[in-house]
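[Backbone geometry]
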Amino acid sequence: MNINNLPILEQIFQLLPVDDLKCASAVCFTWSQVAFSWPCMQNVQLKVAVSAFDDGVVPEVLETTGRRFRHVCLRVDRPIIDQPHRIELISEVLLKFGESLESLRFIWEVEDEMFDLNSMLTVLRYVPGLRELTVEDFIDRRDELAAVLPAITVDSLAGLERVKLPHSLMDNEQFNLAELAPNLLHLSAEFKGRYPWEAIWLLSGQLYSLSIRTETENNFQPLWQIDPSSLRRLRLSRLCCDLGDINDVKLDDARCFFFQCTAITVLKLELHVSLAVIRVIAENCSLLRELLVYDVDDGWQLLVILQRLERLTSLTVAEASFEGADSDIYQIRLPNLVELVLDAIYLEEPTKFFIVLDQIVPNLKFLQVSNYNRFDSDSYNLDILKSLFRAKLQSLDSLTLCDYTCAFPSHLLNYLNLLPKLQELELAYCSLAPWSRSAIVPGIKKLIVDTPITNYQLRKLLNVFPLVSRIEVLQAEDISAYSLEELSRITSRCEFFIRESRSNE
């Protein structure tokens, strides 16, 4: 049994009658031999909470295990500073896996207390060989300043290559990222102030990937001063008012910056970007393979500009408008594009758009259309989907339809047969509307339903997609949603996976 099927196994055990416990024990033993073998354990995360230490439960379990964990998640839900017993237990856990431990996820969840820098640094002293660090602050008091500690010592972790940090840590002026991770290669950070830029300046020139998220207006200007020559991946999120005005002098800064981005292959701009800046990017970033652009006024002109990027294989367009098309759109060609995501876009003529799209992107393999319910109009929503299906995209083999504000119109399921090569389908909606029993789509081999469904709906979906070889469904709140008989029937037909909602990932 695949380790990803753990929710199914748990469900089976809870549904077994008491007199079957002996059988359950045998099943559990066999499964554990597979699930806890070294190949399976490589990607399993050990989750530990400080509150569990008070009962001594976690150390007792760890004393008897011979497993080697590469990933540990430490949830700090109780204070550890000035608590020697808790620190000692944390050190036992981390030192036990010291040789194999590669990544640490540090979650701050102490109720009514701000993120404590000293607590994190204390924990990091027990993982000197750490390669990856993720810090999460669930308390997140944005409007309060961190307390100034009397003395802070930041020990360098020479092997630390990848970090993901919240604003409560990045904006703390007693924290020095460049000192903690002098050999950092991948940085993902959220911050509000100007202080973190100093560390980014020091690390620039060696960073392979940089992801910055800030909500502070005019906090983007320092980016132009970093050295982007080593960057392969750049992601900028929610940056206000810096690239929006084509008459802004910062356009020249952007031109100079992207001229130096000679190695960049992935660029995600989750902010308003003018077409002038996109043109600068297309002229200078010739190696670009993946691009995300946001808030584009003229979608057709965007596609015209992107023809310069001959290596572009993946494109995401969010908050864009495709209106006023002229005859020139029939000349646009993006022959190497194989993945396209259309998120919250407006189509003046949906039918024309998808017909032309099949010509513009002749080798399109994956298409996602999401958040299209912009006007709460049933006629517009149906027009979007019908136009997509009727365009008969010739090369499309994977389709994702997503909008959590509405139900999927299941009476359109038969329209999927109009897509000649479609094999993979994902539906992510608030629910599935009822559909006709006559709907049959034999071409689908993989089905993902990121939508709460009933046992009855699951049976009906198996009838709609008779040749499906793999199904992934959303984990049900009710443990009895899928009966043992149903699970047995499904798993005899195809691979069956239960997982958490992708919208929460």
User: Anything to note?
Assistant: The first strand starts at residue 45 and ends at 49.
